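#struct-queue
[09:14] JT: dropping the first one here, sequence first, then the structure tokens:
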Amino acid sequence: MRFLVYDRLLGFGDDYWIEDGRGSKVFLVDGKALRVRDTWELKDTQGRVLVDIHQKMLALRDTMVLQRGGEPLATIRRKRLSLLRNHYRVSLADGNELDVSGKVLDREFAVEYDGELLAVVSRRWLTVRDTYGVDVVHEDADPALLIAVAVCVIHLAEKERED
């Protein structure tokens, strides 16, 4: 499944739709302005919250937290030793980990679980400016989780660049 994310709208307090490969709206990223921490909700087309996304306030390294239905889903932070490429670790609530690596600021990276590719984030196959794609390649993968991971990783990388 391929999803299109309009990058120019990705920001604190912004709302934007994520479309499928046919151009149909599938998910809404609802930015929550006027909050102490960066916060978004990933919603379906009926307005149901699928994933809550927020910044962890008291952490040594920038950390994003994902929740589903008020329950912890995942924690995302940059790996300590990642010099040439961006590497992020997604610690799932069930104890498993996802690995995110690539050129995050260029929107060219992959999400893997135990060496198996789950999703590819890329601008290469798109002609629309300021847009990147999230291609969920594993049939059993959770698209909402992988899109939330992409949003978080990009946010963390851009915040790090600003600092």
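[09:21] JT: and here's the second one, same format:
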Amino acid sequence: MKLLNRDVDYAARALVFMARANKPTVSVTQMQETVGVSRPFLRKTMQKLHKAGILQSVKGKGGGFALARRPETITLAALVAALQGPLKLNDCVFRKKICRNHGACLLRHKIAAIETRMISEIEGITIRDLI
């Protein structure tokens, strides 16, 4: 099981590149080599981040993407939410359906506590921290 998928990994790399570049806009072509992913895949990822309000898209000559917020306000959790959906470790490990013991299952409660700590840690990591 991977905690963070490749989209989140590439997005974090791209946003770090953008923050370091300190330019009004950065094109996908400029990011591509540093991030290490194909241009179409990176463009698709950047468009998802634009839709989530993490990036701004600038069209036309000299266009590209720009951070919509300061790097210290963009968290790893925001990238995860935009590209993976909610982090969830708390599915039942014994059956595919939720069983009658769902509310009283001790394993489920222990995993929920781990999940809460994990999410808290991920919310504390910002793009600024990764620069």
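[09:30] RK: nice, looked through the second one.
[09:31] RK: The chain has a mean pLDDT of 86.
[09:31] JT: good to know. Residues 106-123 form the longest helix (18 residues).
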